[in-house]
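In practice, a research group might receive sequence data for several interacting partners and want a quick structural hypothesis before committing to experiments. The following worked case mirrors that situation: the sequences arrive first, and a predicted assembly follows.
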Amino acid sequence: MAGRTEDQETHMDATALLDSTGALLPHMTVLVTGLVILTLDLFLTPRSRYLNEVVGLIGLLLAFLFTLSTAGAPRQVFMAMAVVDYLGAFFNATFLLIAALTILLSASYVRREGVSVGEYYALILFATTGFMFVAAAADLIMVFLAIETLSIATYILAGLLREDPRSQEAAFKYFMLGVLSSAFFLYGIATIYGALGNTNLVHLAQVLGQGDFSPLLLMGMALLIVGLGFKVAVVPFHMWAPDVYEGAPTTVTAFMTAGPKAAAFAAFLRVFFQGFTTPEMVQHWAPIFAFLAALTMILGNFVAIAQQSLKRMLAYSSIAHAGYAFVALVAHNALGASSILYYLVAYTLMSLGAFTVLMVVARREGPLYAFDDYAGLGTTHPLLAAMMALFMFALAGFPPTAGFAGKFYVFSAAVQAGYYGLALIGVLTSVVSVVYYTRVVMLMYMREPNGAPPIPRLAPTTMAVLGITAVGILYMGIFPGGIMRLAEHSVAFLFQAKM
Amino acid sequence: MIPIPHYLTVSAILFTTGAIGVLMRRNALIVLMSLELMLNAVNLSFVAYARLHQDMGGHVFVFLSITVAAAEAAVGLAILLTIFRARATVDVDNLHLLQR
Amino acid sequence: METFLFWLFAIVGVGCGIMVVFHRNPMSSAIYLVVTMLCLAGFYALLAGPFVAVIQVLVYAGAVMVLILFVIMMLNLREETLEREGSIVTWILAGLIGLVLVVAVLPPFPRTPASAPEPAFGTIEEVGNKLFTVYLLPFELTSVLLLVAIIGAVILAKRRML
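A structural hypothesis for the assembly, expressed as tokens:
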């Protein structure tokens, strides 16, 4: 069999199968939780619907415990299809956090909007399973299938408000461009398969390390960049994101800015830091990434200024932040890899927090997510306004928030790798972003309340999300060392041996 | 026998044709079919490369790829149905409630 | 014989593929797509892939395209509502760009000719063997993907909210 060492078996025996399954227990747990919710929902009455969330959270907690127990030195399972290591564990923990926060966030929203509750949570959990398999992928076919699983789940989630024409549009646009990018990605896999005879990432690195280099690999790499670029919404593959983020249900948008983005970055790390990792190859893709990152930071931030809707502004902000994270990819070093992980956690907290406030303040009649809804919020709802201010400052990158620490690490990594211009662009565009983030803050505190209907009392789950994200942002900002050390530990193996 | 590059050329032509269809056509159903055409083109590449390397992996990929494409077609059609029910049209250019 | 079949499938396949994209009526496009898929199945057979050839016909041409045709007929678009999309100039431009792209996408091809495959290559036994041993995890993940798609199709397309 091409690509597999001679002493490897042609199939797994019972012990190997059990061992492999045990290693992927976190992923299986999330999957099973989704299935349980799907079935359980058939028997629930409207009064006992809350059990959906409870089961979901318990399942996620179990998966987290399994993540901790299975984390270890890198080992390949399931016939070299998946890999279990600290990097995967870190990503799993991040994905589980995203899912848990989304469940808490959605609890009041799904009842308000009348969405089919059981299927919603099941889809969230299946998407999370997809995220986790991306992070555990050792073979390009697994990356592809995991991305497709999470993408299909997200297409459906985007269109869940079936009566809302904007939700329908969002779902279709997302679907159209999502499948287009998948086709490019698949073509890239086919080309690499043509060059290598198999699609295993570790084997790819070995072949490259031996200097065995075929132009087919370069072409495959370019196609993979196009495919993944769509998923993470860097410029010029970002066209779908503002429309889709604006039209989708708010909790789904929150989920989408955090989960699929983090999963796409996991795919980048696996494919480019474990696959195309030799210095010759890095010389090919790092400048491309640098160019994409610069475009994204510039366009994302400048267009955000002009937005009239807060939701759309946050959509462009999400694009800009993907640009910042991309800078860390360009810096192909240990600090770069660990700063991506840190940044993804930080951005998850900031984004989910901001979208929670968005969801709470949104008015059902009239223009949704208009800036005017926030006028005078500082006087009418001081605690909520303070939270929003925190999220806005964190996204802009003010100390002592996680946003500042994240950008600091990312730009330091770029400087360390010699990309001074890129770091400078990053800093300058961050300054530009202050313009539109503080606009919200000024609206809240310096304008009179405009007599909008009062916001109903927050559900405890919503308050929990706000609390967790706010505390997390401040903690990571003031004590960044803890998470950074975990991140560094997770990526250490990537830079140990010279390929 | 026919050299493998011939098959790869056909695959490239079909892939590009599908891409043109996705980007240029307004009718959502034809966009969907263009996407399917692209995925089919990639499958051809897989089978051709599998023949080159004498590796069954390519055939397995095609099997899985057809499955994924079928699943995506089903979901895409379901989304189309929700749009059509509200608007009685599948003209993609009519989807402009969300600013471009 | 093989050469004749290759060129037959190639010309018909590419021709019908182009017609899928360029025809006004989605019903005709669907039929052209079915023919294209059948030509591809012919290619798979020529490339020693009998199993994938049959699956292509059964699943892709047989199930997916039938589904698309159902939806086309259900939506019942009348010919008059279909206008010409885009001017001739735009299409020619797109064609030229497409030509450039094909040349760009044409990979630097492996020049070594393929050796004759073993008799068991491409059969259902071989595919099954690989699918349940080496590719077991992708296979299982695909089942999750199918479940997600089923859920989606049902909750998006059903008539009334349950």
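Before designing any experiment, note the following. The first helix of chain C runs from residue 2 to 22. Chain C has six helices and no strands.
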